[in-house]
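Following up on my earlier thread - several people asked me to post the actual chain instead of describing it. Fair enough. Here it is, all 130 residues.
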Amino acid sequence: MGNTTIAKPQVEIDDAVKELVATQTEECTIVHCRYFTTEPTGVRIWPQTFLVEDTGRRCKLIKNFNIAIMPQWTFHLVANTFIRFTLVFEALAKDCTFFHLLEDIPQPFAFYSNRVTKNSSGVYTVEVFC
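Reply from S.P.:
Thanks for posting it. Predicted structure:
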């Protein structure tokens, strides 16, 4: 059996995200989200969207890219069966080992993610569900 090499994916950061990070005085966590769908659809995120650490601590949403904040909607054409958007949150705690995304709203179809292991870059690509 031959050797198998698994390459880490290259993450490309949008210029608007780079600008925000450069002007942030606090550290932050960047989450590139992929929402799978086969139909053109409207999406939005509520301000009550958090990263929930393994300790239960919640990191607040700071900025959204390519998705509207409730009550507005962003309508996307579907490319490759998914919609992409980026969310910037407060920094994860130094002792955090994993987290998940949670849109904590009083309606059905809230966004959430599976558990994500913390890395050293603070930049993540996450599949979200509702």
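The two ends are 41 Å apart (CA to CA). That should answer part of your original question.
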